[in-house]
Amino acid sequence: MRGTTLITTAAFALLASAVPACDSLTFAPGGVVVEVTDGDTVVLNDGRKVRLIGTQAPKLPLGREDFVAWPLAAEAQQALSELMLNKTVRLGFGGEEIDRHERVLAHVFVETEAGEIWAQQFMVGAGLARVYSFPDNRQCLDLLFAAEAQARVERLGIWANPYYSVRAADRPGDLLDRVGHYELVEGRVLLADRRSSRIFLNFGRFWKEDFTAVIEGPALRLFERDALDPLALEGALVRIRGWVDDRDGPRIEITHPEQIEVLATR
Question: The domain containing residue 87 runs over which residues?
Fold first, then answer.
């Protein structure tokens, strides 16, 4: 991070007050935060573990063997602790509420002397988390994308670290080095092609070597529901976010529309 490794609660309050919080959620009482596990997970006084849905902070090992902490993971945990530890929170729900690990999936709003602060928004806005969405939890993402874009422009937190750089779609060799990682990849769609129940967004002429984004049938139904046509992305400059794998070259599977940001149509 630039300047200091800590962000005070007052600074968070100033950041949060500059941008409206999401009001399209279903709200419920939360409790008091008694533990901050990492930069996107907290524990409440009733024992519930809450995952800050819509964000991904740098990861800590948390007991996993041979897991190397991501850069700025400790700083993200510390900043979230400054904001939330021993504070009362309320929870906002906009999709699935419990995951397979029995964690509560919620947007978290913290009571502070400066007013209520939306935890996800200021962690992303401070450059201590990325937007990380799911097909069954898509509320409030527009505001989080705006906060992330501003943090990236200002090179705050993770955006000043090469580990989190936005990758170039026309450099497949570099992307193969990031297999198994969550990445943001920018490039122009050379060809948008439907084959049976899936659509391929090809970013190079050699589809077995170049980067590809793949949209499977279940995801296509979400695109159709939102009146979006992925085939119209041919020629567009886009930013893709997701986990990189290696199947006929580096690729990312698209499970919902928010994984694709259109930067320019031509």
Answer: 9-160
